[in-house]
Amino acid sequence: MIIILFGKFKTLKHWQHTAAVGRPFRFPFNYYTLIVLGFFLILLPSSVSNSTNHSLYAQKDSPGKTPQSEKEKPAPAPKQEYGNKEDSNEQDPDKEAGEEVSEENLYPTLEDMQDRVPSAKDLALKPPIDWIVLESNRVMPVMQVFPRPDTLEKMLEAIRTFEKEAPPRTTEEEIKAHIAKRKRMLLLEFSIYEDANLKIPRLFLISINRIKAIIYYEELMLRRIHILRKEFRIRDAFELLHQLRRRAPDWKGIDAAHDHILFSAAEKHARAKQFEDALLKLE
Predict the structure, then answer these.
(1) DSSP string spanning 110-173?
(2) How many helices (H) and strands (E) does the chain have?
(3) Are 98 and 202 in contact (CB under 8 A)?
(4) Is the pTM of this model over 0.70?
(5) 213: closest CA among 194, 188, 240?
(6) More confident call, 261 vs 100
(7) Which run of H or E residues covers position 205?
(8) What is the 3-state secondary structure (H, E, C) of 238-280?
C-alpha cells in the first residue's frame, strides 16, 4: 500500500514540478532509504508474525493432529502401592495372621552369632532384639517375643491348662474346633524387621516344636556386659548393667554380673599395683 501511494505521490509531484520549473522532480536518496527501511522494519515482521500465528492456530484447531507440545508430553506414571498383597493389612479371615518361616539356611548358625553380640551402643539405642535358635542351630534375630521369659514353658503350660479345662467334645465340629485351637496355641507369633532402619516389621508364625531355645534381649545385654568387664571397661559395663536393672530388675543374672564387674575392677587395680583400691573392690 505504501509503495502504491508513493508511486502516485511521485507522479503527481513530478507533473507539478515539471509544470512549475520545467525540469523533472527527483527524490533525494535519504527518502528512498527511509521508505525501504520502513517497509522492512514494519510490514515484513508483522506479516511474518501473522502467518506464523495462523499456522499455529491451524495446527491447534485441526481435529486430526496433535500439537507438538502435547505430543511430546510424557504420560503420567501409574500409581504404585507399597508392598504386595500378602503384606497388606487385609488378611484372609480363613487364614492365620502371619506366615510360617521358611528357608532356614539363610540365617547364620549359633556358632557364627557368638561373635555378633550387639554392641553397647546398639543395645542402648536400637529396638530390642531376641534370638530364636531353631532345631537346625540357625539363629533368627527377631523383635521381642511374648510371653517372656520362659516363653516355651509358658506356652506349653497354657496348652496343658487348655486341655484340662476344655469342655467335652461331642460333635465333629467341636472336635475340629478344639484341634484347630490347640494347633494355633503351638504357634509362636513374632515379627522381623525387613529394612535397615528397623521400622518395617513383618509378622511370622513358627511352631514351638521347631524352636531349640530363645536368647532374650536381656541375655544379650548380660553377654555384652561380661565382654566389657573382661576388656576392663568397667564404667561401660556398669552403665549397661544399670540400664538392664532399670529395664528388668528381677532378671536372672543381674546380681552375678554386678559381682563379676567388681572382680574385674579389682583385677584392673591389682595389675596397676593399686592394691588398696583392689582390696576395696573385693570387700
Answers:
(1) HHHHTT-PPPHHHHHHSPPEEEEEETTSBEEEEEPPSS-SSHHHHHHHHHHHHHHHPPP--SHH
(2) 12, 6
(3) no
(4) no
(5) 188
(6) 261
(7) strand 201-207
(8) HHHHHHHHHHCCCCCCHHHHHHHHHHHHHHHHHHCCCHHHHHH
pLDDT over threshold 50, residue 154: yes
Cell numbers found for residue 71: 505430543
The whole-number pLDDT of residue 13 equals 55
What is the strand order of the sheet 211-215 is part of?
139-143, 129-134, 211-215
pLDDT of 157 higher than 50: yes
Q: Do the strands 99-100 and 129-134 form a parallel or antiparallel pair, or are they unpaired?
A: unpaired
CA 214 to chain centre: 28
| Among 50-64, 199-213, 258-272, the range of highest mean pLDDT | 258-272
C-alpha cell belonging to residue 189: 507369633
Mean residue pLDDT across the chain = 77
- pLDDT per residue as tens digits for the range 20-35: 555 555 545 455 556 6
Distance (Å, rounded) from C-alpha 120 to C-alpha 138? 24
